[in-house]
Amino acid sequence: MSNPVDEYLKLAAIPVPPPSWMSEAVSGLKEPLAGHHIGRMAGGAGLAALAIGGTLAAKKIMGAISKKREFEAMMEHDPELAGFHAENPKQFNSHYNSFRSMNPLFAKDPVVSAQYMRQMNEFPGNAGKIIVESLQGVPKSNRGAEVGFDGKGARISIRG
């Protein structure tokens, strides 16, 4: 069964330079500064950037793995959701992604997330309203977005 995370995980592979390149880059840092060592030094800086980027990529991958587990747990809890998913996978995944980004606390619980996904897929025109209403009982620290009301109506902004 396809889910919103599978393709991200396929694309998240991080290229790792061959070991010989890394050792040459590190040895370039040990020798005196010369024109022919600048490339090796740049390689060392690139290696450091790769390490930092790798940490960020690792966080993204772990988030994607959590998302996949939560999605699968929800689908297992309510097998009838598979029918909605098969009928319109793009819409179903869009609803799930929006729900999870706006209300990550509820998305972690398969019982709760299944109920909201059912409502959104039975009434797709109200999906946004259903998500916003789900946030009313959630502490602000657990929201993926800030929801408020002013003189002009509802106001939504991404928390962060």
Please describe the structure with a list of short key phrases separated by commas or semicolons.
2 strands; 2 domains; two-stranded antiparallel sheet; globular; mainly alpha; 160 residues; 8 helices; 8% strand
Count structural domains.
2
What's the helical proportion of residues?
55-70%
Our estimate of the beta-strand percent is 5-15%
Largest sheet, spatial ordering of strands:
1-2
User: In terms of structural class, how would the helical and strand content be classed?
Assistant: mainly alpha
Order of helices and strands: HHHHHHHHEE
Choose one word for the global shape.
globular
Distance linking N and C termini: 32 Å
Question: What is the tally of helical segments?
Answer: 8
Described by strand count, sense and barrel closure, the largest sheet is: 2 strands, antiparallel
Report on the structure:
The structure is a single chain. The protein is mainly alpha-helical and 160 residues long. It folds into 2 domains: 1-75; 78-160, no CATH class. It is 65% helix and 8% strand. The chain has helices at residues 6-11, 19-30, 38-77, 81-87, 89-102, 104-107, 110-122, 127-134; strands at residues 145-150, 153-158. A hairpin with a 2-residue loop joins strand 1 and strand 2 (153-158). Helix 4 (81-87) crosses helix 5 (89-102). The radius of gyration is 22 Å and the shape is globular. The two termini are 32 Å apart.
